[in-house]
Protein backbone atom coordinates (compact mmCIF):
# COMPACT_ATOMS: atom_id res chain seq x y z
CA UNK A 1 0.00 0.00 0.00
CA UNK A 2 1.24 3.49 -0.83
CA UNK A 3 2.02 5.91 1.99
CA UNK A 4 -1.31 7.67 1.39
CA UNK A 5 -4.40 5.92 0.08
CA UNK A 6 -7.92 7.06 -0.70
CA UNK A 7 -10.16 4.81 1.38
CA UNK A 8 -13.90 4.21 1.41
CA UNK A 9 -15.07 3.32 4.92
CA UNK A 10 -18.52 1.74 4.82
CA UNK A 11 -20.36 2.07 8.11
CA UNK A 12 -17.93 4.80 9.13
CA UNK A 13 -20.57 6.63 11.18
CA UNK A 14 -20.80 3.68 13.55
CA UNK A 15 -18.75 2.86 16.63
CA UNK A 16 -15.86 0.87 15.18
CA UNK A 17 -15.97 2.36 11.70
CA UNK A 18 -15.67 5.92 13.02
CA UNK A 19 -12.64 5.03 15.15
CA UNK A 20 -10.93 3.37 12.20
CA UNK A 21 -11.74 6.35 9.98
CA UNK A 22 -10.16 8.67 12.56
CA UNK A 23 -7.02 6.52 12.65
CA UNK A 24 -6.81 6.50 8.85
CA UNK A 25 -7.00 10.29 8.75
CA UNK A 26 -4.36 10.60 11.47
CA UNK A 27 -2.08 8.38 9.37
CA UNK A 28 -2.44 10.73 6.40
CA UNK A 29 -4.95 8.80 4.30
CA UNK A 30 -7.87 10.35 2.43
CA UNK A 31 -11.18 9.06 3.79
CA UNK A 32 -14.74 8.95 2.50
CA UNK A 33 -17.40 7.53 4.83
CA UNK A 34 -20.41 5.75 3.32
CA UNK A 35 -23.23 5.23 5.83
CA UNK A 36 -27.03 5.21 5.62
CA UNK A 37 -27.29 6.34 9.28
CA UNK A 38 -29.71 3.50 10.08
CA UNK A 39 -27.60 2.72 13.15
CA UNK A 40 -24.74 5.21 12.80
CA UNK A 41 -24.52 8.85 13.86
CA UNK A 42 -23.68 11.78 11.57
CA UNK A 43 -21.68 13.49 14.33
CA UNK A 44 -19.45 10.42 14.68
CA UNK A 45 -17.94 10.94 11.22
CA UNK A 46 -14.43 12.29 11.88
CA UNK A 47 -13.51 15.82 10.89
CA UNK A 48 -11.68 15.72 7.58
CA UNK A 49 -13.63 12.77 6.16
CA UNK A 50 -16.01 13.21 3.24
CA UNK A 51 -19.46 11.95 4.21
CA UNK A 52 -21.70 10.12 1.73
CA UNK A 53 -25.17 9.22 3.00
CA UNK A 54 -26.09 6.04 1.20
CA UNK A 55 -26.28 2.24 1.17
CA UNK A 56 -23.57 -0.25 0.33
CA UNK A 57 -25.93 -1.70 -2.27
CA UNK A 58 -25.42 1.55 -4.19
CA UNK A 59 -21.63 1.77 -3.77
CA UNK A 60 -21.20 1.72 -7.56
CA UNK A 61 -22.49 5.31 -7.58
CA UNK A 62 -19.42 6.53 -5.67
CA UNK A 63 -16.61 4.02 -6.14
CA UNK A 64 -14.16 4.76 -8.93
CA UNK A 65 -10.54 4.09 -9.76
CA UNK A 66 -9.33 6.89 -7.49
CA UNK A 67 -9.94 4.70 -4.45
CA UNK A 68 -7.19 2.40 -3.28
CA UNK A 69 -9.08 0.41 -0.66
CA UNK A 70 -12.41 -0.29 1.03
CA UNK A 71 -12.76 -0.92 4.76
CA UNK A 72 -16.15 -2.55 5.22
CA UNK A 73 -18.03 -2.17 8.53
CA UNK A 74 -21.59 -1.63 7.30
CA UNK A 75 -23.73 -4.43 8.75
CA UNK A 76 -26.61 -5.10 11.10
CA UNK A 77 -25.15 -6.70 14.22
CA UNK A 78 -27.83 -7.47 16.83
CA UNK A 79 -27.92 -11.21 17.48
CA UNK A 80 -31.48 -11.26 18.84
CA UNK A 81 -32.79 -9.19 15.95
CA UNK A 82 -31.07 -11.51 13.50
CA UNK A 83 -32.99 -14.46 14.96
CA UNK A 84 -36.29 -12.58 14.72
CA UNK A 85 -35.62 -11.07 11.26
CA UNK A 86 -33.10 -13.30 9.48
CA UNK A 87 -34.20 -12.14 6.03
CA UNK A 88 -33.17 -8.56 6.89
CA UNK A 89 -29.69 -9.71 7.89
CA UNK A 90 -29.18 -11.86 4.83
CA UNK A 91 -30.38 -9.08 2.53
CA UNK A 92 -28.19 -6.40 4.10
CA UNK A 93 -25.09 -8.16 5.39
CA UNK A 94 -24.63 -10.80 2.72
CA UNK A 95 -26.55 -9.33 -0.22
CA UNK A 96 -25.19 -5.84 0.38
CA UNK A 97 -21.62 -7.09 0.49
CA UNK A 98 -22.13 -9.01 -2.74
CA UNK A 99 -23.13 -5.72 -4.40
CA UNK A 100 -20.15 -3.95 -2.79
CA UNK A 101 -17.74 -6.57 -4.15
CA UNK A 102 -19.21 -6.12 -7.64
CA UNK A 103 -18.82 -2.35 -7.39
CA UNK A 104 -15.20 -2.78 -6.30
CA UNK A 105 -14.52 -5.14 -9.19
CA UNK A 106 -16.06 -2.77 -11.73
CA UNK A 107 -14.12 0.21 -10.36
CA UNK A 108 -10.83 -1.67 -10.14
CA UNK A 109 -10.56 -1.26 -6.35
CA UNK A 110 -8.59 -4.33 -5.34
CA UNK A 111 -7.95 -4.03 -1.60
CA UNK A 112 -10.46 -4.84 1.17
CA UNK A 113 -10.43 -5.06 4.96
CA UNK A 114 -13.60 -6.70 6.27
CA UNK A 115 -15.14 -6.41 9.73
CA UNK A 116 -15.88 -10.02 10.63
CA UNK A 117 -16.72 -11.49 14.03
CA UNK A 118 -16.03 -14.26 16.52
CA UNK A 119 -19.72 -15.16 16.07
CA UNK A 120 -18.60 -17.14 13.01
CA UNK A 121 -17.24 -19.81 15.38
CA UNK A 122 -20.39 -20.42 17.43
CA UNK A 123 -19.79 -22.41 20.60
CA UNK A 124 -16.12 -23.40 20.57
CA UNK A 125 -14.91 -26.86 21.55
CA UNK A 126 -11.59 -25.48 22.84
CA UNK A 127 -10.19 -22.12 23.95
CA UNK A 128 -8.34 -20.01 23.13
CA UNK A 129 -10.00 -19.99 19.72
CA UNK A 130 -7.74 -20.11 16.68
CA UNK A 131 -8.68 -19.36 13.09
CA UNK A 132 -8.55 -23.10 12.36
CA UNK A 133 -11.43 -23.79 14.76
CA UNK A 134 -14.63 -25.12 13.18
CA UNK A 135 -17.06 -22.41 12.09
CA UNK A 136 -20.59 -23.18 13.26
CA UNK A 137 -22.47 -19.94 13.92
CA UNK A 138 -25.47 -20.24 16.22
CA UNK A 139 -27.46 -17.28 14.84
CA UNK A 140 -28.15 -15.60 11.48
CA UNK A 141 -25.85 -12.66 12.29
CA UNK A 142 -22.83 -14.95 12.60
CA UNK A 143 -23.97 -16.94 9.58
CA UNK A 144 -24.14 -13.84 7.37
CA UNK A 145 -20.63 -12.83 8.41
CA UNK A 146 -19.30 -16.31 7.69
CA UNK A 147 -21.03 -16.33 4.31
CA UNK A 148 -19.37 -13.00 3.54
CA UNK A 149 -15.97 -14.43 4.43
CA UNK A 150 -16.65 -17.23 1.91
CA UNK A 151 -17.64 -14.65 -0.73
CA UNK A 152 -14.40 -12.78 -0.16
CA UNK A 153 -12.33 -15.96 -0.45
CA UNK A 154 -13.92 -16.65 -3.83
CA UNK A 155 -13.40 -13.05 -4.99
CA UNK A 156 -9.72 -13.24 -4.10
CA UNK A 157 -9.21 -16.54 -5.93
CA UNK A 158 -11.18 -15.61 -9.05
CA UNK A 159 -10.48 -11.90 -9.43
CA UNK A 160 -7.24 -11.16 -7.57
CA UNK A 161 -8.74 -9.20 -4.67
CA UNK A 162 -6.34 -8.54 -1.78
CA UNK A 163 -8.37 -8.99 1.40
CA UNK A 164 -8.10 -9.34 5.16
CA UNK A 165 -11.01 -10.39 7.39
CA UNK A 166 -10.64 -9.45 11.05
CA UNK A 167 -12.73 -11.52 13.45
CA UNK A 168 -13.35 -9.39 16.54
CA UNK A 169 -14.11 -10.62 19.99
CA UNK A 170 -15.62 -8.14 22.50
CA UNK A 171 -14.76 -4.60 21.42
CA UNK A 172 -14.98 -1.92 24.12
CA UNK A 173 -13.55 1.40 25.25
CA UNK A 174 -13.60 4.69 23.35
CA UNK A 175 -11.32 6.89 21.29
CA UNK A 176 -11.82 10.58 22.01
CA UNK A 177 -15.32 11.54 20.91
CA UNK A 178 -15.93 8.15 19.34
CA UNK A 179 -17.64 5.60 21.58
CA UNK A 180 -20.54 3.16 21.82
CA UNK A 181 -24.03 4.53 21.15
CA UNK A 182 -26.25 1.59 20.27
CA UNK A 183 -30.04 1.60 20.41
CA UNK A 184 -30.91 -0.74 21.94
CA UNK A 185 -27.69 -1.28 23.85
CA UNK A 186 -26.77 -4.93 24.37
CA UNK A 187 -23.06 -4.79 25.27
CA UNK A 188 -22.00 -5.40 28.86
CA UNK A 189 -19.67 -2.46 29.55
CA UNK A 190 -21.95 0.34 28.26
CA UNK A 191 -24.89 -1.28 30.06
CA UNK A 192 -22.91 -1.26 33.32
CA UNK A 193 -22.01 2.39 32.75
CA UNK A 194 -25.68 3.22 32.24
CA UNK A 195 -26.22 1.94 35.79
CA UNK A 196 -23.39 4.14 37.06
CA UNK A 197 -25.00 7.13 35.28
CA UNK A 198 -28.37 6.44 36.89
CA UNK A 199 -29.98 5.57 33.56
CA UNK A 200 -30.56 1.94 34.56
CA UNK A 201 -31.34 0.54 38.02
CA UNK A 202 -29.10 -2.54 37.95
CA UNK A 203 -27.07 -4.79 35.69
CA UNK A 204 -28.42 -8.26 34.97
CA UNK A 205 -26.04 -11.20 35.38
CA UNK A 206 -27.11 -13.95 33.03
CA UNK A 207 -26.04 -17.11 34.78
CA UNK A 208 -23.76 -17.59 37.77
CA UNK A 209 -23.28 -21.35 37.65
CA UNK A 210 -20.88 -21.74 34.72
CA UNK A 211 -17.68 -23.77 35.04
CA UNK A 212 -15.58 -20.62 35.52
CA UNK A 213 -13.75 -19.31 38.61
CA UNK A 214 -16.68 -17.16 39.79
CA UNK A 215 -19.51 -18.89 37.92
CA UNK A 216 -20.09 -16.11 35.37
CA UNK A 217 -19.25 -16.08 31.67
CA UNK A 218 -15.72 -15.14 30.62
CA UNK A 219 -15.13 -12.95 27.58
CA UNK A 220 -12.13 -11.45 25.76
CA UNK A 221 -12.25 -7.63 25.66
CA UNK A 222 -10.24 -5.62 23.14
CA UNK A 223 -9.83 -1.83 23.13
CA UNK A 224 -11.39 -0.21 20.08
CA UNK A 225 -8.19 1.79 19.41
CA UNK A 226 -6.14 -1.43 19.35
CA UNK A 227 -8.70 -2.80 16.91
CA UNK A 228 -8.34 0.27 14.69
CA UNK A 229 -4.57 -0.10 14.57
CA UNK A 230 -5.01 -3.66 13.33
CA UNK A 231 -7.04 -2.38 10.37
CA UNK A 232 -4.26 -0.07 9.26
CA UNK A 233 -1.77 -2.92 9.51
CA UNK A 234 -4.16 -5.14 7.55
CA UNK A 235 -4.20 -2.65 4.67
CA UNK A 236 -0.46 -3.04 4.36
CA UNK A 237 -0.53 -6.83 4.74
CA UNK A 238 -3.17 -7.58 2.07
CA UNK A 239 -1.79 -9.34 -1.01
CA UNK A 240 -3.48 -9.84 -4.42
CA UNK A 241 -5.26 -13.15 -4.70
CA UNK A 242 -5.01 -13.89 -0.95
CA UNK A 243 -7.65 -13.77 1.76
CA UNK A 244 -6.12 -13.51 5.23
CA UNK A 245 -8.37 -14.23 8.22
CA UNK A 246 -7.19 -13.13 11.68
CA UNK A 247 -8.74 -13.11 15.13
CA UNK A 248 -8.44 -9.93 17.16
CA UNK A 249 -8.54 -10.17 20.94
CA UNK A 250 -6.44 -9.72 24.04
CA UNK A 251 -5.94 -13.42 24.59
CA UNK A 252 -7.13 -12.93 28.17
CA UNK A 253 -10.63 -13.41 29.53
CA UNK A 254 -12.54 -11.40 32.11
CA UNK A 255 -15.65 -12.71 33.83
CA UNK A 256 -18.88 -10.73 34.03
CA UNK A 257 -18.29 -10.20 37.76
CA UNK A 258 -14.72 -9.02 37.14
CA UNK A 259 -16.03 -6.46 34.65
CA UNK A 260 -18.68 -5.23 37.10
CA UNK A 261 -16.21 -4.97 39.99
CA UNK A 262 -13.66 -3.14 37.85
CA UNK A 263 -16.36 -0.70 36.73
CA UNK A 264 -17.27 -0.05 40.37
CA UNK A 265 -13.68 0.93 41.08
CA UNK A 266 -13.35 3.07 37.95
CA UNK A 267 -16.65 4.94 38.36
CA UNK A 268 -16.92 5.07 42.14
CA UNK A 269 -20.53 3.88 41.90
CA UNK A 270 -21.97 0.77 43.59
CA UNK A 271 -23.56 -0.67 40.39
CA UNK A 272 -26.17 -3.08 41.79
CA UNK A 273 -26.48 -6.41 40.05
CA UNK A 274 -29.45 -8.74 39.77
CA UNK A 275 -29.30 -12.45 38.97
CA UNK A 276 -30.93 -13.63 35.77
CA UNK A 277 -31.11 -17.03 34.15
CA UNK A 278 -28.67 -18.26 31.56
CA UNK A 279 -29.28 -17.11 28.01
CA UNK A 280 -29.57 -19.92 25.44
CA UNK A 281 -26.36 -20.37 23.47
CA UNK A 282 -24.09 -18.40 25.81
CA UNK A 283 -20.77 -20.29 25.98
CA UNK A 284 -18.97 -20.27 29.32
CA UNK A 285 -15.68 -18.97 27.89
CA UNK A 286 -14.83 -17.10 24.67
CA UNK A 287 -11.17 -16.12 24.42
CA UNK A 288 -9.18 -15.45 21.26
CA UNK A 289 -5.80 -16.56 20.10
CA UNK A 290 -4.46 -13.55 18.18
CA UNK A 291 -1.13 -15.20 17.38
CA UNK A 292 -1.84 -15.15 13.63
CA UNK A 293 -2.51 -11.39 13.69
CA UNK A 294 0.83 -10.94 15.43
CA UNK A 295 2.62 -13.09 12.88
CA UNK A 296 0.98 -11.85 9.66
CA UNK A 297 0.06 -8.27 10.52
CA UNK A 298 2.68 -7.42 13.13
CA UNK A 299 -0.16 -6.51 15.54
CA UNK A 300 -0.41 -6.75 19.28
CA UNK A 301 -2.82 -5.07 21.72
CA UNK A 302 -1.27 -2.06 23.44
CA UNK A 303 -4.19 -1.37 25.80
CA UNK A 304 -4.90 -4.79 27.33
CA UNK A 305 -5.90 -3.73 30.85
CA UNK A 306 -9.60 -3.92 31.66
CA UNK A 307 -9.52 -0.84 33.91
CA UNK A 308 -8.09 1.29 31.12
CA UNK A 309 -10.70 0.06 28.66
CA UNK A 310 -13.49 0.91 31.10
CA UNK A 311 -11.95 4.29 31.99
CA UNK A 312 -12.04 5.36 28.35
CA UNK A 313 -15.61 4.11 27.94
CA UNK A 314 -16.63 5.93 31.16
CA UNK A 315 -15.14 9.22 29.97
CA UNK A 316 -17.10 8.92 26.73
CA UNK A 317 -20.34 7.85 28.48
CA UNK A 318 -20.27 10.89 30.77
CA UNK A 319 -19.61 13.28 27.88
CA UNK A 320 -22.41 11.70 25.87
CA UNK A 321 -24.82 11.90 28.82
CA UNK A 322 -24.05 15.62 29.26
CA UNK A 323 -24.61 16.22 25.56
CA UNK A 324 -28.05 14.63 25.80
CA UNK A 325 -29.21 16.79 28.71
Please provide a written account of the structure.
With 325 residues, the protein is an alpha/beta fold. Helix 5 crosses helix 9 (306-324) and helix 7 crosses helix 9. The chain is 37% helix and 18% strand. The longest helix is centred in the first third of the chain and has 22 residues, at 86-107. The mean pLDDT is 95. The protein contains nine helices and 14 strands. The strands form four sheets. It has a seven-stranded parallel β-sheet with strand order 3-2-1-4-5-6-11, sandwiched between helices. The protein has a three-stranded mixed β-sheet with strand order 12-9-14. It has helices spanning 15-26, 79-84, 86-107, 140-159, 188-196, 224-237, 256-267, 291-297, 306-324, and strands spanning 6-10, 30-35, 50-53, 69-72, 111-117, 162-168, 170-172, 203-206, 218-219, 221-223, 243-248, 254-255, 273-276, 285-286. Helix 1 (15-26) links the parallel strand 1 and strand 2 (30-35). The termini are far apart.
Defining traits:
globular; 9 helices; 325 residues; alpha/beta; single chain
Largest sheet: 7 strands, parallel
Count of distinct strands: 14
Helix percent reads: 25-40%
Shape type? globular
What's the alpha carbon Rg, rounded to whole Å? Answer: 19 Å
Number of helices: 9
Look at the helices and sheets and give the structural class.
alpha/beta
Topology, element by element:
Layout: E1 6-10, H1 15-26, E2 30-35, E3 50-53, E4 69-72, H2 79-84, H3 86-107, E5 111-117, H4 140-159, E6 162-168, E7 170-172, H5 188-196, E8 203-206, E9 218-219, E10 221-223, H6 224-237, E11 243-248, E12 254-255, H7 256-267, E13 273-276, E14 285-286, H8 291-297, H9 306-324
Parallel strand pairs: 1-2, 1-4, 2-3, 4-5, 5-6, 6-11, 7-10, 8-13, 9-14
Antiparallel strand pairs: 9-12
Amino acid sequence: MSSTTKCLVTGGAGYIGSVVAAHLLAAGHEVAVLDDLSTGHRDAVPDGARFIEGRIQDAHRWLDGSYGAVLHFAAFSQVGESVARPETYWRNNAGGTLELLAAMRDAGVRRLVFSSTAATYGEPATVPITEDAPTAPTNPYGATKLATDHMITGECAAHGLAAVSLRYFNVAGAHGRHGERHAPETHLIPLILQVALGEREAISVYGDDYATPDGTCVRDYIHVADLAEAHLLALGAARPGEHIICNLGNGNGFSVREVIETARKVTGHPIPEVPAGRRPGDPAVLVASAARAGRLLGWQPNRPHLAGIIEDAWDFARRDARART
